[in-house]
Amino acid sequence: MAKKQVLVACGAGIATSTVVNGAIEEMAKENNLSVDLVQIKISEVGGYVDTADLLVTTAMTQKDYPFPVINARSFLTGIGTEDTKKEILTALQK
């Protein structure tokens, strides 16, 4: 399976995206998935439209992108985290 570029974005690209980034990194290792994690600000997503395979974000976004966008605020609240993990894994295994 080809390496997937995963954008992990939040408002500032520092705090909440770090939490999500770590969770995805762990999931990738557990499932032997090859991912290139790119931690960015939500405002920087447009610069990766041609290379990204998935956007996982804790920020609000109304834009349409040519790749799946997964809301990961559950990683911050702890509610629905397993469902979000399944959604991310499904997207990465395609």
From TrEMBL:
<protein>
    <submittedName>
        <fullName>PTS galactitol transporter subunit IIB</fullName>
    </submittedName>
</protein>
<dbReference type="GO" id="GO:0009401">
    <property type="term" value="P:phosphoenolpyruvate-dependent sugar phosphotransferase system"/>
</dbReference>
<dbReference type="InterPro" id="IPR003501">
    <property type="entry name" value="PTS_EIIB_2/3"/>
</dbReference>
<keyword id="KW-0808">Transferase</keyword>
<dbReference type="GO" id="GO:0008982">
    <property type="term" value="F:protein-N(PI)-phosphohistidine-sugar phosphotransferase activity"/>
</dbReference>
<dbReference type="InterPro" id="IPR036095">
    <property type="entry name" value="PTS_EIIB-like_sf"/>
</dbReference>
<feature type="domain" description="PTS EIIB type-2">
    <location>
        <begin position="4"/>
        <end position="94"/>
    </location>
</feature>
<dbReference type="Pfam" id="PF02302">
    <property type="entry name" value="PTS_IIB"/>
</dbReference>
<dbReference type="InterPro" id="IPR013011">
    <property type="entry name" value="PTS_EIIB_2"/>
</dbReference>
